[in-house]
Amino acid sequence: MDKILEIENVSKHYAGHTALDNVSLDIPRGQVYGLLGPNGAGKTTLIRIINHITAPDSGSVMFNGHRLSQNDVANIGYLPEERGLYKKMKVGEQALFFARLKGLSNRDAQIKLRQWFDRFEITSWWNKKVEELSKGMAQKVQFIITVLHEPELLIFDEPFSGFDPINANLLKNEILALRDKGATVIFSTHNMSSVEAVCDNITLINKSRNILTGNVAEIRQQMGANRYRIAVTNPPQQLLQGVDAMIEEHRIEKTDGDTTTLILRVNPGVTRRELLRAANEAADVTLFSPALPSMDEVFISTVEKFNSEHK
Known about the structure:
By secondary structure, the protein is of the alpha/beta class. Helices cover 36% and strands 30% of the residues. The chain has helices spanning 43-50, 91-101, 106-119, 135-147, 165-180, 192-198, 216-223, 236-243, 272-282, 295-309, and strands at residues 3-14, 17-28, 32-36, 58-63, 66-67, 76-79, 153-157, 184-188, 201-206, 209-215, 227-232, 247-256, 259-266, 285-290. A six-stranded mixed sheet has the order 6-7-8-3-9-10, sandwiched between helices. The protein has a four-stranded antiparallel sheet with strand order 2-1-4-5, with helices on one face. α8 (236-243) crosses α9. The longest helix is centred in the middle third of the chain and has 16 residues, at 165-180. The radius of gyration is 24 Å and the shape is globular. The two termini are 36 Å apart.
């Protein structure tokens, strides 16, 4: 695996608080990597370390095979959750200012900015002051400023905050397009549905520790083992009585008219055929399929399990 970032045993302590506790993870090149966790888990501290804003107390961060240094910041684009535009400046002037700071010539900056403004349909904003923009409008501008110099590594902290579904989808497609062109993206968010739509791999940080790392599809498959979705037109009690000896737990997912859909987790060793046979004998089955957990379910169950084991 070609890695753009290698984070090994990184710890960071503040007065009376451990922000990161021996965290290790590798960021593959050319993928979207989700950095997840509850508020205060340590995500922002890790992002600040990657951006060379602060330094770890111990451990190492390698960028492109060498120890991360201030010189590498030019190859990183960072969109923080707290937006940083100057409200009194005009949008176009400000975009040019930041583009020049990132090393673009005035000519190249003008060309690229006009292309991006056209793509996002915001050319008419060029001479508006930032204070005239909505939160979502300002975020579009800052997204453009972040990606304009085509850095190898992009870090987006809650990039969909303030966006309606149409503009969130626009931004999602742009992020995937940047990945497809070779950029590596670290995507920090609380929105688990966007993780499923965008991320290739994830790390879940909780209480300053890395508690889950892996490929999104593989994690869902692993955590969805022995889980099935079954819809029946009979009262659900008939199904549950027929499969009672086979299942560890169940919950009703939804009821739609005469049809009830349930999620069942079967005991180890029970095969899909055995469950389906028993279900068909007990009830009128209209749907039977594996039930992969959503990333919301993965997030909640993993954090709750960790918290219960580390009280």
